[in-house]
Design goal:
Elements lengths: L1 H33 L10 H17 L5 E6 L4 E6 L6 H16 L3 H10 L18 E6 L2 E9 L4 H15 L5
Antiparallel strand pairs: 1-2, 1-4, 3-4
Helix pairs in contact: 2-5
C-alpha cells in the first residue's frame, strides 16, 4: 500500500511538473502575440452622442442650424445628427470634414488655409475623402487622436468650426 501511495505521489508530482512546463511553453507564444495587439483609446458611441448634442446646442445658441458628424480613430462614422432645415449636401460635407481632421490630425480649416498658401499641399484636394473646408476638428485624448468631429451648414467654415470647438470644450474640456 505504501508503495502504491508513493507511486501515486510521484505520478501526481510528474503530472504537475509537466502541466507547469506546458503552461509556460503555451504562455510564451501567447505573450509574444499579445504584444502585437494594439491597445488604443477610441471614441465610443456615448461620447460621440454627447459631443454631437453639445455641438448642436452651441450652434443653436448662435441661432444656427447644423449637421454634426463624429468619426472614430479608424475614420468610421460613429454618429450623425442633422437639423431639419439643413441642406442634404451638408451631411456628406460634415462626414468628410471629420474624416479630413482625423486623417491629417489637423483642423480642416487650418488644412484648407495651408493648401491655399502652399502649392505642394494644394493637391490634397484631389484625395477623394478629404474636404478642404473648415468645420472638422480632431478629438484628442492625451496625445492620441481618437476621432474627429465636424459641423456643417451653420453658416460657413468659421461658424462650423466654432460650434465643434464649443462642443468639445463642454464635453472634453481637459482634453483639448
Amino acid at each position: 500500500m505504501r508503495l502504491m501511495s508513493s507511486y501515486l505521489s510521484n505520478a501526481l508530482l510528474a503530472l504537475a511538473v509537466i502541466g507547469c512546463s506546458t503552461s509556460v511553453i503555451a504562455a510564451t507564444p501567447t505573450a509574444a502575440k499579445a504584444s502585437l495587439v494594439l491597445q488604443q483609446p477610441n471614441v465610443s458611441l456615448a461620447l460621440a452622442n454627447e459631443l454631437i448634442d453639445a455641438t448642436m446646442a452651441a450652434c443653436h445658441a448662435e441661432g444656427k442650424s447644423a449637421v454634426v458628424a463624429v468619426v472614430d480613430r479608424g475614420g468610421n462614422l460613429i454618429a450623425l445628427q442633422r437639423d431639419d432645415n439643413v441642406g442634404p449636401h451638408n451631411t456628406d460635407a460634415a462626414v468628410r470634414k471629420a474624416f479630413t481632421a482625423l486623417s491629417t490630425k489637423t483642423p480642416s480649416r487650418k488644412l484648407a488655409d495651408v493648401a491655399r498658401a502652399n502649392p505642394d499641399s494644394n493637391n490634397l484636394n484631389t484625395v477623394n475623402d478629404l474636404l478642404l473646408l473648415g468645420g472638422g476638428v480632431p478629438l484628442k485624448f492625451g496625445d492620441d487622436v481618437i476621432g474627429a468631429i465636424a459641423a456643417g451648414g451653420a453658416g460657413g467654415a468659421v461658424q462650423d468650426e466654432s460650434c465643434a470647438l464649443k462642443g468639445i470644450e463642454k464635453v472634453m474640456p481637459a482634453q483639448k
